[in-house]
Amino acid sequence: MGVDVAFWIFAILGVIAAIGVVAVKNLFRAALSLVLCFFTVAGIYGSLSADFMAIAQVLVYMGAISVLIIFAVMLTKDVRSGNPFNRAWPWAFVVCAALMGLLIFVFQDTSWGTIDASQVEAVNTVTEGESTTGAIAGSIFDKDSGFLLPFEISAALILAAVIGAIALVRDK
Protein backbone atom coordinates (compact mmCIF):
# COMPACT_ATOMS: atom_id res chain seq x y z
CA MET A 1 0.00 0.00 0.00
CA GLY A 2 2.76 2.46 0.94
CA VAL A 3 4.74 1.64 -2.20
CA ASP A 4 1.72 2.39 -4.37
CA VAL A 5 1.22 5.74 -2.67
CA ALA A 6 4.92 6.59 -3.10
CA PHE A 7 4.73 5.63 -6.79
CA TRP A 8 1.76 7.91 -7.42
CA ILE A 9 3.29 10.79 -5.48
CA PHE A 10 6.50 10.52 -7.52
CA ALA A 11 4.49 10.15 -10.75
CA ILE A 12 2.39 13.26 -10.11
CA LEU A 13 5.44 15.29 -9.03
CA GLY A 14 7.29 14.06 -12.13
CA VAL A 15 4.53 15.22 -14.46
CA ILE A 16 4.36 18.60 -12.71
CA ALA A 17 8.15 18.96 -12.94
CA ALA A 18 8.15 17.98 -16.63
CA ILE A 19 5.47 20.57 -17.36
CA GLY A 20 7.58 23.07 -15.42
CA VAL A 21 10.58 22.35 -17.64
CA VAL A 22 8.75 23.50 -20.74
CA ALA A 23 6.39 26.09 -19.21
CA VAL A 24 8.77 28.16 -17.07
CA LYS A 25 10.22 31.17 -18.90
CA ASN A 26 13.31 31.46 -16.68
CA LEU A 27 15.97 29.12 -18.07
CA PHE A 28 17.66 28.48 -14.71
CA ARG A 29 14.37 27.57 -13.04
CA ALA A 30 13.57 25.26 -15.96
CA ALA A 31 16.90 23.50 -15.35
CA LEU A 32 16.07 23.13 -11.66
CA SER A 33 12.69 21.73 -12.62
CA LEU A 34 14.53 19.21 -14.80
CA VAL A 35 16.59 18.16 -11.77
CA LEU A 36 13.35 17.60 -9.85
CA CYS A 37 12.02 15.55 -12.77
CA PHE A 38 15.16 13.37 -12.71
CA PHE A 39 14.71 12.89 -8.95
CA THR A 40 11.11 11.78 -9.35
CA VAL A 41 12.13 9.24 -12.00
CA ALA A 42 14.66 7.83 -9.53
CA GLY A 43 11.90 7.68 -6.92
CA ILE A 44 9.65 5.80 -9.34
CA TYR A 45 12.44 3.29 -9.99
CA GLY A 46 12.91 2.90 -6.24
CA SER A 47 9.21 2.30 -5.66
CA LEU A 48 9.26 -0.38 -8.37
CA SER A 49 12.13 -2.23 -6.57
CA ALA A 50 14.57 -1.39 -9.35
CA ASP A 51 17.34 -0.27 -7.04
CA PHE A 52 20.08 -0.43 -9.67
CA MET A 53 18.16 1.85 -12.02
CA ALA A 54 17.34 4.26 -9.17
CA ILE A 55 21.01 4.57 -8.20
CA ALA A 56 22.07 4.91 -11.84
CA GLN A 57 19.44 7.64 -12.31
CA VAL A 58 20.74 9.55 -9.30
CA LEU A 59 24.40 9.20 -10.24
CA VAL A 60 24.21 9.75 -13.98
CA TYR A 61 21.31 12.13 -14.50
CA MET A 62 21.02 13.99 -11.20
CA GLY A 63 24.76 13.98 -10.59
CA ALA A 64 26.32 14.49 -13.98
CA ILE A 65 23.79 15.64 -16.55
CA SER A 66 22.03 18.09 -14.22
CA VAL A 67 25.29 19.70 -13.16
CA LEU A 68 26.35 19.96 -16.79
CA ILE A 69 23.07 21.61 -17.78
CA ILE A 70 23.16 24.04 -14.85
CA PHE A 71 26.77 24.98 -15.64
CA ALA A 72 25.82 25.56 -19.28
CA VAL A 73 22.90 27.75 -18.23
CA MET A 74 25.04 29.71 -15.78
CA LEU A 75 27.74 30.27 -18.40
CA THR A 76 25.33 31.77 -20.92
CA LYS A 77 25.46 35.53 -21.19
CA ASP A 78 21.84 36.52 -20.68
CA VAL A 79 20.22 34.13 -18.20
CA ARG A 80 17.91 36.72 -16.63
CA SER A 81 15.95 37.51 -19.78
CA GLY A 82 14.88 33.89 -20.13
CA ASN A 83 13.54 32.28 -23.26
CA PRO A 84 11.91 34.68 -25.71
CA PHE A 85 8.48 33.67 -26.95
CA ASN A 86 8.75 31.97 -30.29
CA ARG A 87 6.15 32.68 -32.97
CA ALA A 88 6.79 29.33 -34.63
CA TRP A 89 5.24 27.27 -31.83
CA PRO A 90 2.22 26.15 -33.90
CA TRP A 91 4.55 24.74 -36.55
CA ALA A 92 6.66 23.10 -33.87
CA PHE A 93 3.50 21.54 -32.42
CA VAL A 94 2.50 20.18 -35.86
CA VAL A 95 5.97 18.72 -36.44
CA CYS A 96 6.03 17.14 -32.96
CA ALA A 97 2.55 15.65 -33.47
CA ALA A 98 3.60 14.23 -36.85
CA LEU A 99 6.75 12.71 -35.35
CA MET A 100 4.73 11.24 -32.48
CA GLY A 101 2.31 9.68 -34.95
CA LEU A 102 5.22 8.26 -36.93
CA LEU A 103 6.79 6.82 -33.78
CA ILE A 104 3.51 5.21 -32.71
CA PHE A 105 3.13 3.70 -36.18
CA VAL A 106 6.69 2.34 -36.15
CA PHE A 107 6.36 0.94 -32.62
CA GLN A 108 3.13 -0.85 -33.44
CA ASP A 109 4.36 -2.20 -36.77
CA THR A 110 7.73 -3.51 -35.53
CA SER A 111 8.26 -7.05 -34.36
CA TRP A 112 10.42 -6.68 -31.28
CA GLY A 113 13.02 -9.27 -30.37
CA THR A 114 12.91 -11.03 -27.06
CA ILE A 115 15.58 -11.79 -24.50
CA ASP A 116 16.71 -15.38 -24.05
CA ALA A 117 15.56 -17.13 -20.89
CA SER A 118 19.17 -17.74 -19.88
CA GLN A 119 19.82 -13.98 -19.70
CA VAL A 120 16.76 -13.37 -17.53
CA GLU A 121 17.31 -16.41 -15.31
CA ALA A 122 19.71 -14.67 -12.91
CA VAL A 123 17.47 -11.64 -12.47
CA ASN A 124 14.37 -13.78 -11.89
CA THR A 125 16.04 -15.54 -8.95
CA VAL A 126 16.03 -12.30 -6.95
CA THR A 127 13.36 -12.36 -4.28
CA GLU A 128 11.26 -9.43 -3.09
CA GLY A 129 13.26 -6.94 -1.05
CA GLU A 130 16.63 -8.28 -2.24
CA SER A 131 19.04 -6.12 -4.24
CA THR A 132 18.96 -6.63 -8.00
CA THR A 133 22.40 -5.10 -8.56
CA GLY A 134 24.34 -8.34 -8.06
CA ALA A 135 22.04 -10.32 -10.35
CA ILE A 136 22.27 -7.68 -13.08
CA ALA A 137 26.07 -7.54 -12.81
CA GLY A 138 26.26 -11.33 -12.93
CA SER A 139 24.16 -11.51 -16.08
CA ILE A 140 26.08 -8.70 -17.81
CA PHE A 141 29.62 -9.69 -16.89
CA ASP A 142 29.28 -13.45 -17.21
CA LYS A 143 31.79 -14.96 -19.64
CA ASP A 144 29.03 -16.58 -21.68
CA SER A 145 26.72 -13.56 -21.92
CA GLY A 146 28.66 -11.67 -24.60
CA PHE A 147 28.12 -8.28 -22.96
CA LEU A 148 31.60 -7.90 -21.46
CA LEU A 149 33.33 -6.75 -24.66
CA PRO A 150 30.76 -4.04 -25.53
CA PHE A 151 30.98 -2.78 -21.94
CA GLU A 152 34.76 -2.49 -22.18
CA ILE A 153 34.53 -0.79 -25.58
CA SER A 154 32.07 1.78 -24.22
CA ALA A 155 34.41 2.45 -21.28
CA ALA A 156 37.29 3.09 -23.70
CA LEU A 157 35.09 5.43 -25.78
CA ILE A 158 34.09 7.41 -22.70
CA LEU A 159 37.74 7.69 -21.67
CA ALA A 160 38.65 8.94 -25.16
CA ALA A 161 35.82 11.51 -25.00
CA VAL A 162 37.02 12.80 -21.62
CA ILE A 163 40.62 13.08 -22.86
CA GLY A 164 39.40 14.86 -26.00
CA ALA A 165 37.30 17.29 -23.96
CA ILE A 166 40.27 18.09 -21.72
CA ALA A 167 42.48 18.63 -24.77
CA LEU A 168 39.92 21.02 -26.30
CA VAL A 169 39.41 23.25 -23.27
CA ARG A 170 42.93 23.51 -21.85
CA ASP A 171 44.85 26.76 -22.18
CA LYS A 172 47.14 26.97 -25.15
Q: Which overall shape is indicated by the principal axes computed on the Cα atoms?
A: globular
> Any idea what the CATH architecture of the largest domain is?
Up-down Bundle
Strand content: under 5%
Structural class: mainly alpha
How helical, in percent, are the residues? over 70%
Number of domains: 2
Q: Treating each run of at least 4 consecutive H or I residues as one helix, how many helices?
A: 7
Strands, total number: 0
Question: Largest sheet, described in full?
Answer: none
Please tell me about this protein's structure:
The relative contact order is 0.07. Helices cover 74% and strands 0% of the residues. The model has no long low-confidence stretch (mean pLDDT 81). Helix 2 packs antiparallel against helix 3 and helix 5 (117-124) runs antiparallel to helix 6. It has two domains: 1-84, Four Helix Bundle (Hemerythrin (Met), subunit A) (Up-down Bundle), CATH 1.20.120; 116-172, no CATH class. It is mostly helical and 172 residues long.
Short description:
By secondary structure, the chain is an all-alpha fold. It has seven helices and no strands.
